[in-house]
C-alpha cells in the first residue's frame, strides 16, 4: 500500500467518524410528526420532569389522576405544574411505593389547597421520615389499598386498572418495595398507557403469569430504566410503540442503563426521556397517541458510546499510516 493510499485511509476514517457524529446529532433533532389536533374530549398524560423520580399527571375532561410526585424537593415544581393547568382537584392520587423519589413531592400536594379525593397506596410497611410524613397526611383522606383487578372510571371512554400488587403483598421484605409498586394501565378508547412505578423483574413475571392484557401503546419504563426492569418477555408482551423514561440527568445510579435502552431499540420502540427532553406530554383522542411537543427520541448511538468508537477508528488509522511510512 502506498503512502498516498494510507493517507487517504486516515482522512476517510476521520471523515466517517465526523459524519457519524453529525448524523447522530441531526437524528435527535428530527421532529415527531403531529398528525392530529387536540380536542376537548382528549386525555393528556404529562410525564413531569422531577429529576430522579417519577411524577405523572393524567388530565381527562372529567377525573384527574396524579401518579407519584417525585422527590420532596420537587414538590413545588409539581404544584406549579398543576397550577399552570388550573388543576385544583386530584380525583385519584396514586403513591406507587414508599420510596422518597416517588412520594416525597406528594407531601407538598397534600399540604396545599389542592383537593385530593382518594389516595391509592400499596400498603407496604416501610419506615423512613418522608414516608411517615406522607402517611400522616394521607390519614385525613379516603385511602384505598391497591389490589390487582381494581378499576377506576375516569371518563366515559377512559379507565384505569390496577395490575400490581396483589393483596396480601407477594413480596414482604423491606427491600422488596419496588416489586410491590402500584402498576396501572390507562385505557382510553383503543389506546393505552402502562405505568409501572419501580416494578422490576419479579413483579413483571407476576403480571405475566396472571395473564393480564399488558399490551400498551406507551410504556412508562419501570424503575427509571434500570437493567433489572423491562425484561424481554415483559417487553414482548407490552409491545409499546413509545417508551418514556423518567430519570434525572447524571443521576448516581447510571439510570437509564444501556441494556434497557438497547432492549427497547431492538424492539423498534421510540424512547423519550425526561433527562433528555424535560417534561414529556402525550395526548390521545382514543384512536391515536400523539406527542404535541415533538420531544427528541433517545438516539441509537449515545454520545458516550460514539466517542470511544471515533477515537479507536482514528487510532487504528494512524497506526496503519505510520506502518506504511516505515515500509
Ligand atoms: Zn424510583
Question: What is the structure about, briefly put?
Answer:
The chain is α/β, with parallel strands linked by helices. 33% of the residues lie in helices and 21% in strands.
What does this structure look like?
Helix 1 (3-27) packs antiparallel against helix 10. The longest helix has 25 residues, at 3-27. Mean pLDDT is 89; it is low at 21-38. The chain is elongated. The N and C termini lie close together (9 Å). An 8-stranded mixed sheet has the order 6-5-4-3-2-1-14-15, with no helix packed on it. The chain has a 7-stranded mixed sheet with strand order 7-8-9-10-11-12-13. The protein is an alpha/beta fold and 327 residues long. It folds into 2 domains: 1-24 and 305-327; 44-300, Metallo-beta-lactamase, Chain A (4-Layer Sandwich), CATH 3.60.15.10. The chain has 10 helices and 15 strands. Zinc ion binds next to helix 3.
Q: What is the name of the CATH architecture of the largest domain?
A: 4-Layer Sandwich
Indicate the proportion of strand residues. 15-25%
Estimated structural class:
alpha/beta
DSSP summary, beta strand count: 15
CATH class of the largest domain: Alpha Beta
Principal-axis shape: elongated
Q: CATH topology of the largest domain, what is it called?
A: Metallo-beta-lactamase, Chain A
- Give the name of the CATH superfamily of the largest domain: Ribonuclease Z/Hydroxyacylglutathione hydrolase-like
